[in-house]
Amino acid sequence: MVINEKLKGFWHGCDYNPDQWLDYHEVLEKDVELMKKSGCNVMSVGIFAWAKLEPEEGVFDFGWLDKIIDRLYENGIYTILATPSGAMPSWMAEKYPEIRRVQEDGIRNRFGNRHNNCYSSPVYREKVRIINTKLAERYSKHPGFLMWHVSNEYNVEDCHCPLCCENFRKWLENKYETIDNLNKKWWNGFWSHTYKSFEQISPPGQHGEKCNPLKLEWHRFKNHMMKDFVEAEIDALKKVNPDVLVTTNFMQFFEIDYSKVSKSIDVISWDNYPKWHSADNEFASATETAMFHTMFKSFKKDKPFMMMESSPSATNWQGVSRLRRPGMHKLASLQALAHGSDTIQYFQWRKSRGQSEQFHGAVVGHDNSDDTRVFREVSEVGRNLKKLEEVAGSLPENEVALLFDYDSFWSLRIAYAYRNIEKDKGYADILLKNYGALWQMNVGCDFVFGNDDFSKYKVIIAPMLFMLKKGMKEKIENYVENGGIFVSTFASGVVDEYGLTFFDKDCYPLRKLLAVKAEETDSLYDGQHNSVKMFGETYQSERYCELAYNEGATVLGEYCEDFYSGMPAVTVNNFGKGKAYYIATDFALDGYIKLYEEILKGVVSEDKVINTPENVSVTMRYSADNCYVFVMNFNNESKKVELSFEYEVLCGEFEEKTLKPYEITVLKIVDN
Ligand code: GLA
Ligand code: ZN
Question: Is the CB of 310 under 6 A from ligand 1?
């Protein structure tokens, strides 16, 4: 299924900010000529253009935008039109101070930054409604209009204004009904935290509050407000024309519960800025990027996602602005496709001359020419996308999933426990390590989130499922009873959805499923290790060693050191038609790889198992009739790959099954 029938094939384009160049007529003319040369067919227009669209309150100027959208369309380039709410104009900030966010100490932000608005402010919501309605009336039926790009990188930063505080209290009251109930659920007898009324509750900040549930609920509330704001924006657009697609560009950050807000939009898109060439090899960057592609793809599993932004060379805001080595641009761009994106888009088309992004990578640099290394590499991607046209609309199909639980992640960040030397207690890194093991094995996987259907996966791996929300235990048990394979780890099933620990007979909620009692967790300092004997070899482990007592499971691995030497470190239990594994310790990468080799043996379809050299990755996309194989070499040296099928090369050099440094090839499997 393609994103939009109007433009089949892959989309290639940029954030395009002509509103910064309106005084440069020749530049605007030249833009189109260069866009065609580089093989671009879409532009995201109007992000942050509010000051040009509504220069004074109620005075609108769409003339310049009419010309841009027309000119692009006449030249075969489609417009992804943005709503401008990501940055407010100065007249608005001045006249309506309530729209600006308030810091914890009560100081209201001044005008001068973007992403600065309060989500509660009725005035801001009304101003957004008006401009969105006008844009929709004018452009949503334009033949060159492709879809909406709502705002830009919504975030969940704090706003401590009176409107937000009030909304927070109301939200809590709605959820808990009585203050007594809230006090109980939050265990507020602790340190005399008991509230007398909802009016006494303020958002948490840096000056005192140590109350964990307050922080957890404030986090949930901010996500709720953001989602509500997104929906209000979309509502204005769809009221005018419901037959339009809407996306908003997500960021990798885990702080935002995208699993919820993604339900409010039609297409998932995200902004991808890896730190290529920041280490001896690309394993960390390649796996992290792949993981985020996988995560964003997984929010809507039945359609391709969009890579809305990426830099065609360096960024300007990372610690070090490293250039992409020759070849890396093509590899990094097509890597998005390999995981199910149907677009390769950049921030941005043309480098601005001033302000904070004047040194950020862009397709066209300050010399205003196509005779640059970056322009040539971008154009090469454009040419490759043409060769790959038939692949658009196909999708990865995976049998294994990683369970990513935002609430567990947040709760671990908030809790004082385990290894406080890592803010999230290692959650994100451990998730990535698990993903990295599957990546190195070329086992494609999806992410699943708490509300997703588990049944379509043969295996679900749930690292550190610290919080078990209502119904989750039953859902997991049901999945395994019906034949699923579930992998649980240390620090799982510890607290309920309010952050209260399970108690008494409800303690150890996964005990029955796993047939082990995971009683204590030993947290290790950096540099401390244990080792585990399993499958005839010894593997190093780190971070956590849980002490579990076997109650009928089969022990696959045992600790070799410390006072718990000989205790189980890996177990499996038959449960109904399925199996439940338990991993008590955090392995180094090779331990996870060994484990997953054993767990997936005979479970994952054979044609999906491909062995490659280190840091060479293989993924697949399927259409109704074909299977496309992406083979990516993240090494700065040539690598040979063994493949057991016949193929046709759609793009990339693959002479004698060898990939040059940073080369990527896309193959189509052909029947012999
Ligand atoms: C983000 C924003 C863009 C731009 C880029 C720079 O992704 O959405 O507007 O600032 O970062 O990398
Ligand atoms: Zn506010």
Answer: no
Ligand positioned closest to the Cα atom of 356: 1
Report the Cα 495 to chain-centroid distance in Å: 25
How far is residue 541's CA from residue 193's CA, in Å, rounded to a whole number?
40
**Residue listed under structure tokens 């840091």:** 615
The conformational region for residue 521 under phi > 0 = left, psi -120 to 50 = alpha, else beta, is: beta
- CA dist 318 and 286 (Å) reads 17
User: CA 572, 541, 517: angle at the middle one, nearest 5?
Assistant: 40
Torsional sign, CA 106, 107, 108, 114: negative
Q: How far apart are CA 493 and CA 517, in angstroms?
A: 11
What is the Cβ-side half-sphere exposure of residue 561, based on CA atoms within 13 angstroms? 14
Separation CA 113–CA 476 (nearest Å): 45
Residue 121 CA to ligand 2 centre (angstroms):
6
| pLDDT above 70 (res 404) | yes
DSSP string, 138-174: HHTT-TTEEEEE-SS--------SHHHHHHHHHHHHH
Determine the distance separating the centroid of ligand 2 and the alpha carbon of 469, expressed in angstroms: 29
Tell whether the model's pLDDT for residue 482 goes beyond 90: yes
Q: The tokens 């499958």 sit on which residue?
A: 535
Q: Which ligand is nearest to the CA of 106?
A: 2
b/e map 463-489, b = 16+ CB within 10 Å: bbbbbbbeebbebbbebbeeebbbbbb
Which token pair is 457? 């996966």
CA distance linking residue 479 with residue 473, whole number of Å: 10
Query: Ligand 1 within 6 A of 62 CB?
Result: no
Please return the burial class of 9, using the count of CB atoms within 10 Å of its CB with bins 0-12, 13-18 and 19+. middle
Q: What is the Cα Rg of the chain in Å? A: 26
Tokens of 37: 């040369």
In 3D space, the residue among 282, 293, 290, 384 whose CA is nearest the CA of residue 324 turns out to be 282
Active-site residue set: 153, 309
Residue with tokens 């996308």: 385
The model's confidence at residue 205, banded by pLDDT at 50, 70 and 90, is confident
Mutate to test the pocket of ligand 1, among 116, 153, 292, 355 (most ligand atoms within 8 A of CB): 153
Atom of ligand 1 nearest to the CA of 152: 8
Please report, for the chain, how many H helices and E strands are present, in that order: 17, 26
CB 558 near ligand 1, within 6 Å: no
Ligand 2 centroid–CA 108 distance in Å is 10
Please report how many Cα atoms fall inside a 13 Å half-sphere around the Cα of residue 560, on the Cβ side: 13
Cβ atoms within 10 Å of 229's Cβ, excluding its own: 23
Residues present in the chain in total: 672
CA pair distance 247, 441, nearest whole angstrom? 33
User: Does any ligand 1 atom lie closer than 6 A to the CB of residue 345?
Assistant: no
Atom of ligand 1 nearest to the CA of 317: 12
Say which ligand is closest to the CA of 99. Answer: 2
pLDDT tens readout for residues 294-317: 999 999 999 999 999 999 999 999
Q: How many CA atoms lie within 13 A of 71 on its CB side?
A: 17
Whether residue 348 has a cis bond before it, omega within 30° of 0: yes
Name residue 575's beta-bridge partners: 578
Residues 6+ apart with CB under 8 A from 99: 88, 92, 93, 117, 118, 121, 123, 124, 127
pTM over 0.90: yes
8 A C-beta contact, residue 44 and residue 83 = no
Other C-beta atoms within 10 Å of 649: how many?
Answer: 13
Return mean pLDDT, the chain: 97
